[in-house]
Amino acid sequence: MAGGAMMAERSLLLRQATENIGETCNIVVHDHGTMVIADRVESNWAVRAAFDVGTRVPLETSASGKLFLSSLPKASKSRILTAIAKSSGADKRKKLQKELDAIRAQGFSVDDQILQEGMAAVAVPIKDSRGRFCAALSAQGATFRFSVKGKDAEKHAAMLRPFADQFQKLIGAA
Hints:
Layout: H1 4-21, E1 24-31, E2 34-41, E3 56-58, H2 63-71, H3 74-88, H4 90-106, E4 109-112, E5 119-127, E6 133-142, H5 151-173
Antiparallel strand pairs: 1-2, 1-6, 2-3, 4-5, 5-6
């Protein structure tokens, strides 16, 4: 998703997504067991999360990480959840598995102050030409203005999806 004209188009789409939703938007990719912010356009708000391009976030606590985990084949997901359970406990594994099943069914993921207190995020998948997860498009903001409770999360995901679709077309054209 890098290089020349594609990078310029990607940056423009990400800027449009940020303007549309009114919050900071990110493209986040999986790398060596974490999610990495690959690109980011900041909102104009004074209060926002202090993440930079290159920041790594855990799979199990970020909206993009949980979205990635939900997309994995059952065996791969089970191995990763087992590893997470070793440090967090079996109860955490069961709760996370249930959440991943819901994410897979609804097609988006949320983080409600798990990664960072006072911040919330919504992530939708960007898929490759074979329909596989390749990145997440996420929006994040301060919880006092960006709620992910109830229908708000669905509303945010619906606002992000057209941009994720455009990113998918951009990847397919490469």
